[in-house]
């Protein structure tokens, strides 16, 4: 049974030039306890996809499709059932914890609020539980931290507080929207380790939004790659880095420099990432694709389920195993 | 399409491109909204009437006809006449000239002086900025109308004293707003970039800071225009500004007060309405402009 | 060995402490040399002081003590406009966020022309020619000169910022996290552009970054900074394959890659 099902999700938001498509037919599925990485560049629609699961889309947005959390529909659900969803089943972690934690309240108030409101605990019990939660995210001196204000904590610590608040309601699903993007690499490593441990201990599923393909592939069970509002590829994280199915994934893997080898020139994807509303007929990646054919410009490819994974590319058959996954010219060649 | 795959730079401009003038006009209209458009329409109307008053006015605004005092609206006098039998419509039209000319002069002067003071103060910083800020605080505590009263007591009643006094009163408002915005603006990287290229302080202020502050300065000026109109009319009403027999809305209201006691409310109501609508238009427009300036920043 | 274009010795910068606390040394005893045409990276996490070093080198921040020598001349005191103009030919800065570092009210062409005119007394035709040349060198088209920054994508804006910095024909380009805010596919384009520029002219890079992979791609030498101090310095390749310091190893281990397992190295970070 799946924890989260999204089917043919389309999101259009209001702009000065009329309605703009941001998410253009996203279908994905996360099993119980499974982690799915959703990777994309700016404008891909990855973030709004995650937010839509909790009904957090901009005012006046036009949302169609089907979203189910644990078998219960989310789209079109009443405000009350959405609140129940947020307080019981699904928790969200944001990129910038400072924007989501009230700066004039103590860390303790922030943490115990959810416990008292949603789980009906009294003050003392909530405080005890909060100290336990902080210990779970690697903060040992919890009692002192509860009395501190957000500005007294570093970004990494505050993100852990955010995670502690997220797991407080013992959710079945965590939506993590670039939770480590603003953090240093060593802190990112710790936060990801904490998230991984908690997930395994409690069997939580996770939708992990990131722009970092390597990070997603290293920390999630499966990785989906988004481009211009669509998922162009989804497969197991174990196989994705070595055997990308879509030319865009291959291009992303190749254009990222590595700490193991330097190349004279990085293989690049020409042009810039586009949003769904900027694409015309045909494949949205056609304008930047090195493998482009005539039909790619005319007809949008359907998503094909292969044994290797799902991919939306006309040439998927011939490209399996043929796409490069890393910079090919080694420094030794220079 | 093939250009997209060969040159990385072309993809984006294909999508953005340049704004065509018509698109720009339409988006300007969209940004103003219906109230904004109505306000602009009324302002244009008043401006045209003021400029073309000699051509448009049906009669000489100062031609007295005692026998026709307090005439009701008719074909000869569309809005009737005042106590001296002067054509009310013509007087209101000529009155628009005085109102616009004096208020624009006040705002133009105070904006130029206030902006200059603010830019220098914020750019130089340190002791200069601290001193300017204190002086502004002191001036700020005094209402503009007090300066006008002081100027009139020295220079005698008349438009010159009123305009100078109100200019002095409005300058601190401009300076305070612009100084705050400049302090935010100088923290931007592009100012550091210009400094690192070796641009002079004057060039940075005039070529970089000023163009970026312009939307805010214009919005501020338009909003203040409304207050200047009210202050000017108030001073005329008190008999300190424009002197009779000149056609002026404040004076018309003053005279209208006497007329109203005799049962003729036309003057007071029409002049008040003119002033009220003009002030409302200006404030609506200023409000729209400052919202846009905020969005841009 | 070619001549040194930047020489920094015992650089220190103190900031007043929070709420009357003792002063904090953001940069503490940093020294390095940058040879003509070389690419040197300063790597560190937030709070390491790497950006403060760059800002002091540019003259945007005044050092508490220590010496900075650029192109054989010591930099000190508050420079006059003429002196700043001279210094502009020695070293230029590319900022992290090209949306903030470009004047939003100035057309692209005007921004580059101004940067040229401040340094070289050229006529109108020559000015136009050089501007087009710079735009072309950073992968833009002549018609981009007519546009405003908001009409360009993030990557294109960063290209403009690089073109503007090159306009003064400086000996050194300081790049402060100049590719950090860009999308992965755009980042690769800009990194290639930076490689191309270095091949086509004599220019040294001081590359401030938190990203070891990016540094490995672009710089021969690397300095690792932590809490204001230099932890380790050496050839980038050597530093990445055989780090001498524990901190450097931790930085390397934290870079995600296939087969990477995130680790909880310390369970109690300081506030």
UniProtKB/TrEMBL annotation, chain A:
Q: Does the keyword Nucleotide-binding apply?
A: yes
The entry sums up its family as follows: Belongs to the ABC transporter superfamily.
InterPro entries, sorted: AAA+_ATPase, ABC_Ni/Peptide_Import, ABC_transporter-like_ATP-bd, Oligopep_ABC_C, P-loop_NTPase
Which PROSITE patterns does this UniProt record tie to the protein?
A: ABC_TRANSPORTER_2 (PS50893)
Protein name (Swiss-Prot/TrEMBL)? ABC transporter ATP-binding protein
Q: Which residues form the signal peptide?
A: none
Q: Which species?
A: Nocardioides ginsengisoli
Q: Could you give a GO molecular-function term held by this entry?
A: ATP binding
Q: Which residues form the ABC transporter domain?
A: 4-253
| Subcellular locations according to the entry | Cell membrane
The answer to whether UniProt assigns keyword Transmembrane helix to this entry is no
Q: Which Pfam families match?
A: ABC_tran, oligo_HPY
| Superkingdom, natural source | Bacteria
Residue runs in coiled coils: none
NCBIfam families linked: oligo_HPY (TIGR01727)
Q: Which PANTHER family match?
A: DIPEPTIDE TRANSPORT ATP-BINDING PROTEIN DPPD, OLIGOPEPTIDE TRANSPORT ATP-BINDING PROTEIN APPD
Query: Where are the membrane-spanning stretches?
Result: none
Q: Which UniProt keywords apply?
A: ATP-binding, Cell membrane, Membrane, Nucleotide-binding, Transport
Topological category with respect to the lipid bilayer: Peripheral membrane protein
Record's Gene3D superfamilies?
Answer: P-loop containing nucleotide triphosphate hydrolases
From TrEMBL, chain B:
Give the chief site where it resides: membrane
Q: Where in the cell is it found?
A: Cell membrane
The record's annotation in Pfam families points to: BPD_transp_1 (PF00528)
InterPro entries reported for this sequence: BP-dependent_transpt_permease, MetI-like, MetI-like_sf
Keywords of the record: Cell membrane, Membrane, Transmembrane, Transmembrane helix, Transport
Q: Which CDD domains match?
A: TM_PBP2
Q: So which domain of life are we looking at?
A: Bacteria
The topology of this chain with respect to the membrane is: Multi-pass membrane protein
Family membership noted in the UniProt record: Belongs to the binding-protein-dependent transport system permease family.
Write down what this protein is called: ABC transporter permease
UniProtKB/TrEMBL annotation, chain C:
Where would I find the ABC transporter domain in this sequence? 6-252
What's a Gene Ontology MF term here?
Answer: ATP binding
Q: Which SUPFAM superfamilies match?
A: P-loop containing nucleoside triphosphate hydrolases
CDD domains assigned to the protein according to its UniProt record, in alphabetical order: ABC_NikE_OppD_transporters (cd03257)
Keywords assigned by UniProt? ATP-binding, Nucleotide-binding, Transport
* Family annotation (PANTHER family): D,D-DIPEPTIDE TRANSPORT ATP-BINDING PROTEIN DDPF-RELATED (PTHR43776:SF7), TRANSPORT ATP-BINDING PROTEIN (PTHR43776)
Question: What family does the Swiss-Prot or TrEMBL record give for this protein?
Answer: Belongs to the ABC transporter superfamily.
Q: What is the recorded name of this protein?
A: ABC transporter ATP-binding protein
